[in-house]
Amino acid sequence: MGCVVADLKVRFAGLELRNPFLLASGIWGESGDSLAGAWAAGAGGVVTKSIGSLPRAGYPNPTIETYERWGMLNAMGLPNPGIEEYPREIEVAQRAGATIVGSVFAGDAAEFARLATQMARTGVSAVELNLSCPHAEGFGTEVGGTPEDVEEIVRAVAGAVKIPVIAKITPNTSDPAALAQAAERAGAAAVSAINTLRAIAIDVHLRRPVLSHGIGGLSGAAIKPVGLACVWQIFEKVKIPVIGIGGIMTAEDALQYVMAGARAVEVGTAVAFEGVGVFGRLARELSSLVDDLGYARLEDAVGVAHRSA
Amino acid sequence: MRTVVRVTERVEETPSTVTLRFPFEPAAAPGQFVMAWFPGDDELPMSLSYTTGPSKGITVKAMGDTSRRVQAIRPGSPIGVRGPYGNRFDLTPRHILVVGGGSGAAVLAPAAEAARLGGSSVVVALGATRAPELLFRDRFERMGARVEVATDDGSVGVHGFVTLVADRLLENERFDAVWTCGPEVMMRKVVDAAASRDVPVYCSMERHMKCSLGMCDACALGPFHVCTDGPVFSSELLARVPDFGRFHRDPSGRRVPF
Question: Between chain B's N and C termini, which has fewer beta carbons within 10 Å?
């Protein structure tokens, strides 16, 4: 990785990552080869596609609307091969040596617990609960969008598995920090925030929504300030570690999340703009930036912005 | 970003294939594809069968319900187009064997035209179920390519698969490259036949596709993605794809045998 100076290793919630840049769930994570590819490109770890009980095709196309560099709208509809089939993909990524976080989605707490148990059996390092997909009927925000829902689901999962449980929470609520607090009460090892912002695109010539599902989720640079605010508020309310997600395109974006309180970050949309090589670039640039700012280790910068706020 | 355009022309190329022409300004190269959205219906990855000038074209084969509805689209109907995406055929080889099966000729025809314009010689092995289904046979002949055909029912040309024709041509002539598109099992046979003669093959690959931006992983092909690493893959790269010609993935990402 060239001239790595500052130490980017991060340790939290029982995880040890070689750098803070995780491949975000939903990107590249449907096949084991792709997870392995993101790892080989320098990701600090990889989060799988959200996996459900049964194979799911997702929504028909169009599933995506692209904008200029500032963002992207998607409603994939949680496509995934299902938990029975998926372990073979995880195996492929494990053979490549990747640090893997298994993401799962379910319709209720019992199903979450069962899926997480199956996911844990594959040997993943942690499980991330998708409580936040903004566009899937009966899943995501619809079942994990309130503190009560989050608490019930996380409690069921934390009681069922030994590996760290990460609750990925939604920004589409008036008080995301309350969701993080609920996760903490229920035994989550960490929270990740944010998932996409509920959004829609309309084509004026066709006079209709662009995405087949209508509503989708906005990601990319446009949502970074929103993600930062969520991480900021969550950091002030909980003691468990926070993983920052949303619009990270540069090392400075990532460091903003770290200074807001994140121990690690997930990168998704940047992969569409730049390819998986983004991971190597971000790690190199962050190392120099952290060094330039006088930190020996990235971990020393976690939450520092709160001290002067 | 999508552009909404109106279909200007509809041509029935064979009983099962229809070409739709539409104005689309962005420059495109043979091998590239667009995401074509048929409002109220699906958005499909379509290789461009006409790549030059402001009027582009796609050629659709009747496969399932969606493609049949697409074939029924009339001039004047709006479609959404984004792209072009993906890589292109390398036009530098001087003597090229083109092997097209079924609707595979749709992407090979503009590539062969460009190669001919560049002064290369082109031999085409064209296969179809039956004589009237031979796609772009006239177009290949008009560009000055030598065309040899095979049909499953023997109604014209060699009775059997087009790989028989390709194999014989590879045996008798020294080609600099092979370009192929068609059923993946056929392409794998072409790759194997050319490998023993040390001729590189370039395959235009197909996988279920959603985002087309190298993000969603639907079109994963071993360590590659068809949308951003392809759709044209060399036999050298395909050697790293054990699933080539054996497994594809359904829309859920499950591996499914061909």
Answer: N
Residue type at A251 in one-letter notation: A
Beta bridge partners of B159: B151
Residues in B whose CB is inside 8 Å of some CB of A read: 1-2, 4, 35, 37, 39-40, 42-44, 78, 80, 82, 210-218, 220, 222-223, 225, 228, 249-255
Domains and CATH numbers, chain B: 3-85 (2.40.30.10), 95-257 (3.40.50.80)
User: Over the stretch B31-55, which tens digit does the pLDDT of each residue have?
Assistant: 999 999 999 899 999 999 999 999 9
The complex's ipTM works out to: 0.93
Which residue is it, tokens 């919630």?
Answer: A13
Give B117-152 as a DSSP string: HTT-EEEEEEEESSGGG-TTHHHHHHTT-EEEEEET
Question: What pTM was estimated for this model as a whole?
Answer: 0.95
Strands (E) in chain B, as ranges, are 3-6, 9-14, 17-23, 33-37, 43-50, 55-61, 78-85, 95-101, 121-128, 146-151, 158-159, 177-181, 201-204, 220-221, 224-225, 232-234, 247-249, 255-257
Structural domain of A294? 10-308
> Could you report the average pLDDT of every consecutive run of 10 residues in chain A (309 residues)?
70 95 96 98 98 97 91 96 97 98 97 98 98 92 94 98 98 96 98 97 95 97 98 98 98 98 98 94 96 94 91
Q: How far apart, in Å, are the Cα atoms of B190 and each of A198, B129, B158, B168, B177?
A: 47, 18, 16, 11, 12
Asked if residue A196 belongs to a domain, the reply is yes
Residues 6+ apart with CB under 8 A from A174: none
Residue pair A286/A212 in contact (Cβ under 8 Å)? The answer is: no
Nearest by CB to residue B210, choosing from A49, A61, A208, is: A61
Known catalytic residue at A133 = yes
